Structures are given as C-alpha cells and as structure tokens.
User: Which sequence fits this backbone?
C-alpha cells in the first residue's frame, strides 16, 4: 500500500540481489543481507516482507485456474479494496486491518468457488468432504466478518475523517 520512491525501489533491487547470493550459498551474504535490512527504510522492509501480497497472489492463482487475466484482476481488486478500506490517511493499524479484510475476502471467495466446483463435478455425495469444506468456508467467513468489524471499530474510534468547522463565518475542513 506504500508507493516507493526511486531510491527505495533501487534499495529493494539491492536487497533482492543479496537474497539471491544467500540462496546461492554465499556464506557472508546472509550477514550482509541482515545488516542491509537493518539500515533500510521502513517502507523498503515493508515491501520486502509483504506477506499479504504474496498470500493474495497464491489465492488468486488457485481461483484463476490458469486464467492470467482473472488472476491479475483479482489481485488488483483486492489491492484496491485494501486501499479503499484503509481510507485517505490511514494509521498503521488501519493499514494492517484493511489488508487483512482484503485477504480474507479472497479466501472466502476461494472457499465458495471450491465448494461450487465440488458440487459441479458431482462430488456432492461424500458427506464428510462436504462437511469439512463447509467448516472451512464458515471459519473463513467468520474471520472475514470479524476483521471487517474490527476495522470499523478502529475507524470509528478515530472519529470522522473530515470535520467541518465554522470559524468567524468561514467554513474550514479539517482532515485527521
């Protein structure tokens, strides 16, 4: 959700190169990578450890069943959803919660698609499989709704994002 500067993008490239060295077995590269991460800006570290983006990519891959347009559109939709839910000037907690809501939305959708595919294949006769799928689906849905509720509560505690104040006959808009 953070737009990187050119310098930050370059730093991410440097860190990825160090990571490749570690993967290749370079003994000193891991220490160098750790040092470089400690010296990196928070937005760079956040980009390198964006679990939500990776997770949503994996879910979209399963949902798309080989359709690149569907996969990329689903990932983009979730990204936009997270941005919209976070609001204009989100707190770090609002960012985390909006990312969680978007990721759980994808999980709920995947569970629905898997259940539909199972029924479509005529596999709806094995009660144990259907019950297990229903439990997983219900659990994902419960977590999704809990994340939405928590985000709404946090945003409500923050107060309105824009307050209009009338000072000496002049209207002033104040954003949080």
Assistant:
């Amino acid at each position: 959700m953070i737009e990187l500067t050119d310098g930050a993008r370059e730093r991410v490239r440097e860190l990825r190169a160090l990571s490749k060295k570690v993967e290749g077995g370079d003994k000193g590269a891991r220490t160098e990578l750790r040092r470089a991460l400690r010296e990196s800006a928070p937005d760079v570290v956040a980009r390198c450890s964006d679990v939500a983006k990776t997770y949503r990519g994996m879910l979209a891959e399963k949902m798309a069943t080989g359709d690149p347009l569907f996969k990329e559109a689903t990932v983009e939709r979730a990204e936009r959803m997270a941005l919209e839910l976070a609001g204009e000037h989100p707190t770090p907690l609002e960012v985390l919660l909006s990312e969680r809501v978007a990721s759980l939305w994808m999980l709920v959708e995947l569970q629905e698609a898997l259940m539909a595919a199972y029924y479509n294949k005529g596999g709806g006769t094995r009660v144990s499989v259907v019950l297990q799928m229903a439990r997983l689906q219900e659990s994902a849905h419960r977590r999704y709704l809990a994340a939405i509720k928590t985000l709404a509560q946090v945003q409500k505690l923050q107060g309105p994002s824009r307050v209009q104040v009338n000072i000496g006959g002049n209207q002033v808009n104040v954003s949080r």
Remarks:
- The first strand starts at residue 162 and ends at 167.
- The mean pLDDT is 87.
- Strands lie at 162-167, 170-175.
